[in-house]
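Sequence only, no structure available. Ideas?
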Amino acid sequence: MRTSTTGRVGQYAALLAYLVFLAFPFLWLVSTAFKSPRELGSLHPTWIPRDPTLDNFRQAFDEQPLLRAAGNSLLAASAAAVIAVLIATPLAYVMARHRTRLAKAATGWVVVSQAFPLVLVIIPLFLVLKNLRLINSLVGLVLVYVVWALPFALWMLVGYVRAVPTELEEAAAVDGAGRLRTLVSVTAPLLAPGIVATALFAFITAWNEFFFALVLLKTSDKQTLPVVLTHFIGAEGVADLGPLAAAALLATLPSLIIFAIIQRRITGGMLAGAVKS
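Reply:
I predicted one. Tokens follow.
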């Protein structure tokens, strides 16, 4: 009994430590965003600003085109998430239901491809987009985001498809439904939590992505939010800390809000109500 209690206390302590580890950067970012320049230069920083101010937010919007950059990021991330899910869903269904050697090889390639460093793929991607005249274009950036998100999206959705009982599809086939009708009317609705989770992953990945956007986008009117945030760092590497923290906080909020809205669908049961009467 004592061992069980000790183990449970240890688990809660580890969980609390992990939550503190995750929350510390965000809480410090919030604190910094509302501090005055005098507090930011203090040798004894505090968690709670003694004299909270919104000047950092005003200065951030005055110095950089944050709204335009946020619009570019929103457009690129949303388009990449939708396209990746539309492509990955039928492919994942085929890979999960037809377990051939080719499907197994494709699954292995999907996992291995996630280990490729960005530096390894940026040069061939740059050359391909240059030949297609898509450098400094949001369309080219969306294509890159789709290619980058597709392997992991496939890997996620394959697991969700395999969790759907094949008996439901067999019952639909007995009722006269074809493969496409079964996928659209039976399997796809049951995959809704998985599709939402995959779309969320693709969106957040594209929203936070920096390296591809830095290399492929040249003009300021096309740059995304993570690239614009670097403009708060001077030529000598000195950061304008207050406006940078304010802009970074605004850039973080969309991901948190979206996750808060759809987290119930992600954690909900996949097969709730999937009982054939």
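Residues 269-277 have pLDDT under 50 and may be disordered.
Hope that gets you unstuck.
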